[in-house]
Amino acid sequence: MQTTFHYDCTSQHVRWHIQGLAPSNATFTKKYLPPGAQSCSAIFNFHAPPGFDLNAIIAAGRAGGANPFAALRAVGHGGTFDFQRSVSGGNTTFYSGYTDASNIAVGAYLYGAGFSNGQASFISNSFADTMSSNAGSPQQSDYRNLGYDLANAGWNPTCH
Amino acid sequence: MEPDMSLTIARNEVASGSRWNLVLLTVNILGAIIYVLAASHGWVIPQEHGAVPVSGEPFVWALFVIPIYAVFGLVNVSWGAYILSKRRWRSGYFWLMAAAVWLIAICVDFAHH
Q1: How far apart are CA A49 and CA A100, in angstroms?
Q2: CB atoms within 10 A of CB B1
Q3: pLDDT digits (tens, 9 = 90+) for A23-78
Q4: ipTM over 0.85
Q5: What's the burial of A5, exposed, middle or buried (CB within 10 Å: 0-12/13-18/19+)?
Q6: HEC states along A12-48?
Q7: pLDDT, tens digit, for every residue of A109-145?
Q8: Which of A44, A52, A98, A147 could be cross-linked to A83 through a Cys-Cys bond (beta carbons 3.0 to 4.6 Å apart)?
Q9: In chain B, which residues have their Cβ closer than 8 Å to the Cβ of A132?
Q10: What is the distance between the alpha carbons of residues B36 and B75, in angstroms, rounded to a whole number?
């Protein structure tokens, strides 16, 4: 692992880039949706990739529990259920149309992992209020709660 | 007890205490490094800064760091309580150094979200 330090005068923060953990040389492209995206409906409408399966996300949550590495692989950056990011060769394409599906996946994963919706909200709100520069929109909690509630109800969204 | 013997015992206690202080400070430094590495999984990707809302990051971050906070919080509160109860003020310097290390680590973490 290669570590470099530099002082960023514009933000007045000492930025510590640990290459490999936070890729700084990779390209980042933002698009709305990839070809083949599905429209799904479950109280709210949202877009999801083909094969979107809430039960698979719940099962991954059950298997992972409170294991942080399992959570990272599932809902972390570029994780299996982080549908909004497509990472290839270190380059990331961000699909903003899949952000709602990613938040639904987070809710369903947390349900499977055994967290209460209150715990999920507490962690998310504390994180957003205290330190996040990318604090989520109200949609973030709406869709995370939707994912949690759908998982709790055993209801898989219909997609076409 | 002979004066020489009591002096030797006192010196041994000081040496043993210093060794423990060094061990605890080293453990804290290692813990802070592990904390920063673990917390970095929840950091915003530089290219996405300000452009992308968070989704799973808070939970990944919390699952990594809460056990570290719990373990080192317990260790350092116990260490601090021992220093206060025994009035080992020299050990207090080591404790303060450990606290400074954690403060820097937390600042590094929070600056990247």
Answers
A1: 11
A2: 7
A3: 456 788 899 999 999 999 998 999 999 999 999 999 999 999 999 999 999 999 99
A4: no
A5: exposed
A6: CEEEEEECCCCCCCCCEEEECCCCCCEEEEECEEEEE
A7: 999 999 999 998 888 888 877 766 555 567 888 999 9
A8: A98
A9: 44, 54, 57-58, 113
A10: 18
Structure tokens belonging to residue A112: 């499977």
Angle between helix B89-110 and B57-86 (nearest 10): 170
Confidence label for B48 from pLDDT (cuts 50, 70 and 90): confident
Spatial strand order in the sheet of A91-95 = A28-31, A91-95, A85-88
Buried b (16+ CB within 10 A) or exposed e, A123-134: bbeebbeebbeb
Interface test with B, best of A30, A72, A92, A93 (most B CBs within 10 A): A72
